[in-house]
Here is the input.
Amino acid sequence: MARKKLPRAIFLDFGDTLVETEPLYIERLRMSFEAEGIKVGYPEMEHAYLEADWRSAKALLARKPFPGQAWRELFMAVMVETLGIKVNARDLLQKVADRMTAIHPKRKLLPGAGEFVELCARHGIRMAMLSNNDGRTRAKAAEVGIADHFELFLDSTIEGTPKPDPEFFRMAVNRIGARPNECLHIGDLLGCDVMGAQAAKVPAAWLQRRSYTPKARVKPYIKAGSFDEISRKIGLR
Here is the structure.
């Protein structure tokens, strides 16, 4: 049987795809809500966060240019609605953002992430890291020992727009010098990663490791629970 044609370029999300933090991102979010007097359990916070991700993407992806601030505000509004709390979502957004910035987590590679990156490099696949981050994506990747494998880093703070803006993915396609259908984006979020990439005509792999699965009518090119599964589905193994 003929070997599958590998992607020419692979784009990877950073947080909760390649790397996890201690405390986990959603736990830090829960802690920040609690610091504002809003007590929420981890499962409820995960549910609200994942619902906000795809619902806010669905609502705003058709807007051109993509309204980054409106997306952030809608994201928080959906979280507040899902949690059933009555607060001003816009005010809470800034307070939670400030609380999150004050927490300095430790980082480590998720299972299979380092091996996957090395495997892609051995096959000559070009790699870009696409992250909604604070301007330090490259430094954080260096901290966990994978930065040298990536030729391109796109950070939402530096680029001035967040995923799921399709333009974010188009920037990666153009800068790496490939066609959209020659690339594959891998991420853990249906909205920011899968829906954003697909809006830019880039195939997307959804790395689904979480306990809650949104009931969104979104069909990723690949759905997998591990990097090993992705490797097999794209013909790396």
